[in-house]
Amino acid sequence: MKHRSYKNEWFLLAGALLLTIVSFILDIYFCDLNWFARSGALVVLFAAVVEFRISGHIYDDIQRSQFLNKTIDISVPLPAKPTKERKRISIVAHTFLVIGTIIWGYGDLLWPQT
Question: How far is Cα 18 from Cα 73, in angstroms, rounded to an integer?
Fold first, then answer.
């Protein structure tokens, strides 16, 4: 099977992180903007896009193996193991989904309301 590098997915997650950091800094200097809490929604969106792209890669792998007529002896069950890179990007994307949701829901509570 062809190994993927997931450069675009890492770029999306890095962009989400950068957006969150910039939003946090903006909220420190301009308290009434609430950009940090809003950035949580974008982090969730970026992480969901990454998860969708990963599932597309998995689907491509399944289609490729069917096209090549690869058969697996089902008398001996084999656990499906993703590549280390796919597993790593998936864990980071899942973490961003959770953290982004927390930021989205509670990020505005970090600063006193005026």
Answer: 46
In this predicted model, which residue has the larger pLDDT, 70 or 56? 56
The answer to whether 13 and 47 have CB atoms below 8 angstroms apart is yes
Q: Are 100 and 44 in contact (CB under 8 A)?
A: yes
**Packed helices 7-29 and 35-67: angle between N→C axes, nearest 10 degrees:** 170
- Residue 34 has what pLDDT? 84
**Residue pair 50/93 in contact by the 8 Å Cβ criterion:** yes
Q: Dihedrals φ, ψ of 104, to 5°?
A: -60, -40
Least confident residue range of 1-10, 24-33, 55-64: 55-64
**Both tokens assigned to 14:** 């890095």
Tens-place pLDDT, residues 26-49: 988 887 778 899 999 999 999 999
Domain boundaries, the chain: 7-73+81-110
Q: How far apart are CA 75 and CA 39, in angstroms?
A: 49
